Amino acid sequence: MYAPGDVRVEDRQDPTILEPTDAIIRLTATCICGSDLWPYRGVEPVDHTAMGHEYVGIVEEIGDAVQTVKVGDFVVGSFVLSDNTCEICRAGFQSRCEHAEFASGMQAEKARIPLADGTLVATPGQPDADLIPSLLAASDVLGTGWFAAVAAETGPGKTVAVVGDGAVGLMAILAAKQLGAERIIAMSRHPERQKLARFYGATDIVEERGDEGVARIKELTGGLGAHSVVEAVGTQESFMQAVGATRGGGHLGYVGVNYDVQIPGIQLFFAGIHTLGGPAPVRRFLPNLIQLIWDRAIDPGKVFDLTLPIEEAAEGYRAMDERRATKVLLTF
Ligand SMILES: [Zn+2]
User: Fold this and answer.
1) Which stretches make up the Enoyl reductase (ER) domain (predicted)?
2) What is the pLDDT of residue 260?
3) Which structural domain, as residue segments, surrounds residue 237?
4) How far is the CA of 93 from the centre of ligand 1 (A)?
5) Of 197, 234, 287, 299, which is least packed with CB atoms within 10 Å of its CB?
6) In this structure, is residue 263 part of a structural domain?
7) How far is the CA of 120 from the centre of ligand 1 (A)?
8) Among 145, 156, 327, 175, which residue's Cα sits nearest to residue 254?
9) What's the CA-to-centroid distance between 88 and ligand 1, angstroms?
């Protein structure tokens, strides 16, 4: 991305092993993230930046110190690089690893993956082609939605409300269902996304937003609010809607990147809720998510509603920016 709104596809030098803990992968597929729209819209600085942080592919080369993946393995990696051995990683917060770095430059045919042992997970074998989108989703949106559902303490007997019907919100619905939630309320006003939300397990749809959305959630929960709420948008309105929809003593998991959100202390104080959020420690969930996909127990790949060859990446960004696509898969 040369500058906001200016995406180009060009030839670059092949990556090489720089550290003994690196691996080089040839990507099988990559995609455009909702968060890639922040620089695209000029909210985050961008200047000739190599884009992309979601990836699956085949290991082509490994450094001398790499032990858990080998050449030829099909691998899925988290969008945050982690050593997976430090105290923070061992506590399950790999996205805050002492050595954490955000993956970048993955919208490319090849990539260097630092900290390969702590970042990559090999699949049980070479996947069938129809599993590729789902495995790619595990790299970020599925892992992030799953983390949000876990952070919101989703589980059996719980009523879960999901604010946001983008890819991450839809994946949080999938996760809530897998985690045994009794009732899942999707907050969405797009017919296509409502359909997908129901496919992934939503039992109720709420179209209202802001205070009206909160009132509707309360109406559906005997005046109490939901046990578990996922915030997957990151705007002022959506965040306060999520706080308001959480019952006293309930749990809010927030994963929408929330640059401009101001949370009035007193509102949070009187809400009396648990909150946990931030960049998802996807690495914690990857082995389990890969197995669920491998066993065809879940089908997260349906969040991709547009597939383009990587040469047309600029059109992919436009389609997501103009909301003509939820999530764009790029192929080689
Ligand atoms: Zn670590």
Assistant:
1) 5-330
2) 87
3) 144-277
4) 8
5) 287
6) yes
7) 13
8) 145
9) 6
Side chain identity at residue 88, one-letter code: I
- Cβ burial 293-314 (10 Å sphere, 16+ → b, else e): bbeeebbbbbbbbbebebebbe
- What's the whole-number mean pLDDT along residues 157-167? 97
Residue 179 lies in a domain: yes
- 189 and 240 together in one domain: yes
Do residues 230 and 245 both lie within one domain? yes
Number of domains into which the chain is organized: 2
- Å from CA of 4 to ligand 1 middle: 33
The CATH number of the domain holding residue 117 is 3.90.180.10
As a dihedral over the C-alpha atoms of residue 295, residue 299, residue 300, residue 304, rounded to 10 degrees, the angle is 130
Residue 90 Cα to ligand 1 middle (Å): 7
Global pTM exceeds 0.90: yes
Please provide the DSSP assignment of 76-111 as one string. Answer: EE-SEE--S-SHHHHTT-GGG-TT-EE----SSSEE
